[in-house]
Amino acid sequence: MNEKECSMKEALMFTQRVGQLSKALWKSIEKDWQNWIKPYDLNINEHHILWIAYQLNGASISDVANFGVMHVSTAFNFSKKLEERGLLQFSKKENDKRNTYVCLTEKGEQMFLSIMEEYNPENSSAYSAALPIKNLYGKFPELLEMMTIVKNIYGENFMEIFEKSFSNIEDTFVEQNGQLKHKEPAPMK
Amino acid sequence: MNEKECSMKEALMFTQRVGQLSKALWKSIEKDWQNWIKPYDLNINEHHILWIAYQLNGASISDVANFGVMHVSTAFNFSKKLEERGLLQFSKKENDKRNTYVCLTEKGEQMFLSIMEEYNPENSSAYSAALPIKNLYGKFPELLEMMTIVKNIYGENFMEIFEKSFSNIEDTFVEQNGQLKHKEPAPMK
After folding, report:
1. ipTM of the complex
2. Which of A2, A26, A100, B155 could be cross-linked to B22 through a Cys-Cys bond (beta carbons 3.0 to 4.6 Å apart)?
3. Domain B32-178 is found in CATH 1.10.10.10
4. Enclosing H/E stretch for A12
């Protein structure tokens, strides 16, 4: 087997490995995510938009599309639906009149925070599946290989928002009686 | 911060980490996969069914649903469409009259092998994104954390088929003139 042959097969096998694993993992996470937000009559894209708008304290449609990994038209259409339900409002920024920004209304923020407060790790298969790793190593897997691959596909900016979302959770929520509660009415205001 | 509080936040942050990463990774892989099979007028589920039928040298609808991570009804309906196109045939096994099995027709196998032969790693974002890791460590990332999580969600049997698919590629394909070619008309017959 020459080097070229080896490398072509290696490439196919890696593509297949990462493809099968990410399909299987995402399908499981998707199901749990849908169940989590079902009582609020939201789909995953809509919830993701609320999440991004909350995290960024207002986001452009292009931010929503990038960080939510959806088409710009999908981001726009679902944002419009959220606006019609009074959960999101559209605006322009003083220093950027060209882009449309979305931010949570009071009602949208309340809904977002209620959903977070109802988060229950026991309903997450990926969480349960990762527990044996946590029990062995003392912390959850960092998924560094997966993170590096995602970073190399989507860029540094994507990862910055990704990391920022964790410090927001860290800063914004406390646990009371086995439930997450937000500390303040809104982050970074 | 007490231990419980820490663990609840840790759980949410891990769930979010694995959720965002797997959504982003899968959406990229899904796009590349769709582009790869587009010339054959197949969707991802249909191609996945052909792939599983090829790998297992005939598979029950329940195998297809399990290993393809799709509902049984989805597996059945798309298998029917493939049958109508003359790519798949339904049968019963001598030693198992209760389950419906699907296997590739000659035409289905030809199509599957053509698609494999047209595989081009340069069209895979995940492959390109993993190359820096290969260049650094001398091999592609093994994604062991991701694999363990998927194993704990879907079970040992799922992983056995998963691993088997790699040895099938190893045994069945050679590289000629920068393209994958299958060695024999069909594997394991």
Report:
1. 0.89
2. A26
3. yes
4. helix A3-37
